[in-house]
Amino acid sequence: MRLLLNAIAVALSGLIALVGLVGLVWALAVPRLPEVLALTDYRPKLPLRIMTADGVLIGEFGEERRSVVRFNEVPRSLIDAILAAEDDRFFEHSGIDVQGIFRSAGANLLTASRAQGASTITMQVARNFYLSSDKTFLRKLYEVMLAFRIEQQLTKSQILELYINQIFLGRRAYGFASAAQIYFGKPLQRLTIAEAAMLAGLPKAPSAFNPVVNPRRAKARQEYILGRMRKLEMISDGQFVRAMKEQLRVIGRSDDYSINAAYLSEMVRQQLFSEFQEAAYSRGLTVFTTIRADEQRAAHSALRNALIEFDRRQGWRGPEGRLVLPSGRAEEIEDAVEDALSDRPDSDGLFTAVVMSTLGQEVRVMRPRGREFVINAAGLNFAAKGLEANAPANLKVSRGAIVRIALMPSGEWELTQVPQVEGAFVALQNDTGAVRALVGGFDFRRSKFNHVTQAYRQPGSTLKPFIYAAALERGYSGTTLINDAPVTFDPGITGGQEWNPKNYDGIYEGPISLRQALARSKNMVSIRLLHAIGPRVGQNYLSRFGFESSKNPPYLTLALGAGGVTPMQMATGYTAFANGGYRITPYFIDRVIDEHGNLLSRSEPARAGGDAPRIIDERYAFITHTLLQDVVRSGTARKALSLGRSDLGGKTGTTNDAQDAWFAGYHSQFSAVAWIGYDQPRSLGERETGGGLALPVWISFVAETSKRIAQVARPVPAGVIRLNNEFYTTANLPGVGVETLGFVLGDAPSDFTPDPPSNN
Is 388 annotated as catalytic? Predict the structure, then answer.
């Protein structure tokens, strides 16, 4: 009996000591606890978010990708999934779930493990906001104390709202709203029950249950949560069955967006950083750009498809690399494939893969995470040379080859490749300069070099309309006859080699009207025209439109576009012909708002017909416009007639040895430019032209984006007279001013540079 009493006394003493110790620690710790009321003024780091003009997300920049939502904006299915996964008694306990602790302890004793924890959502909020993740007794005690205090001072909905916005869910996603966009590309409100359950499984282990990296484990976790939701009667049996069967479409990369506008997003990022510095990435700024989602989608698709089609005509170049596959277990092979492809990202629909086997008319390939695909005969046509028994080593398709695969319209897979050729496309609104679409290259992940704004290339014949406009201002008209005949510049004049400029088509027509010469892109005519007005005059005239004088020297080769311009500069220049003679300034940010929706800034562009500067007389802008219309109606851009519009104008351009292919054109609403070429200039091919390569890109874009844009007939401005189907001003009526221009074969002007491009 005495032993029993002694044991009880010792136990009581120990309990009293423990309670006293806990009380002492509690008394010492309470004054040091942070003030949790600060949570009611929740100000997380919010990323810079970039949107289209019509509200589609195209980019986010910041260490934490986060979108803050209010509790009443969260769908019930997601709340239920979170509670089922993390804390189903959340609305019943006071921050500490005693029942949960005992249940967890019992389960751990039965399994002799520490598999189950007992952290409530409130405790997780305390830990995420105030504490480290160190597993120490003192940290756990602080967590419990903070949980009690949070429960006393905040409502349950406030606590849950904090949790939903703050919790880390992998792939730089903080909060469920951000995760919904990152993993499924949709707003929180559109999540299905199956998707909500998948996201609710992430807080436990964001890496282990990541549906991109570990789809099998993520699926198992999702099914467990769906089972819990059914058990807790949060969903019906029918909803459970449908959710279990639902095929989830998980986005493959954290920087994938429904609209591909990476080059423009980077332009926005740079501009916002220059203004706000590092704060741009954390203060929750939202930038609405000037591009429209459907127009950007059309531009990206048109350029990308053209580059792929061109590249396929060049033939199979062989695998991107080769991997020596291990001969061990399947897991080792999967790991080797994963490592080999980790630095070769997919490019939209062009997916990286490793060849596992080739057998007759069948090739088996593996993608990351051990996914295998079979490519049958129809999908091997493009790479057929690489499957021949005696194929050169650089072309050979064999085990270990790193290749690209893509889906054909039939739904079957094919072997393909990433184009080496590059391109650019930009569309500007004629009256304001607002960027309506911008594609800076084939793939931003492959090259961040923005060909729209950074690539200075020879413009070829797309520059000719500016020379013609300068001539119109100096008394020439569309009926002025110019000698389309060969001319030679001897070495004595050039100071180097003999120069024999040629027409692209090799055809010389003798005296030809200025209107016909532009439509047929006659080089001899442009050279004579520039000589007549003077190369220096031509250079100065070009500078009015925004072309840099330093990159376009005053030589006769300027008439053939031998200088350097960017696609953005070219598009800007053409807007002046489209808007009646005004110079607009391109801009791509419409407005910037803060995290509360307050307007911080809005663009106020100078408008054509308003405060934009006039750079060409309205009369000559109109006559140049009619010349460019004839390029479409009967000249090198006749393919554009397929659009069935009467308000089109534009000019093709192909530089020397077909190193650059251009089309610059417009209709009543906007001007657009397409360019195609190699980064290291080389020939695109003997028969490739601006009309064959760049013009189809432009046509595809206009066809897709102009369905709802009415055709607008350009009014004839005051001071322009129509006579015998030609437009004149009083300064260049027939008989007034120069009507013929030419020089005898061999009589060359003295100001030029040799080896100009041969254009069309």
Answer: no
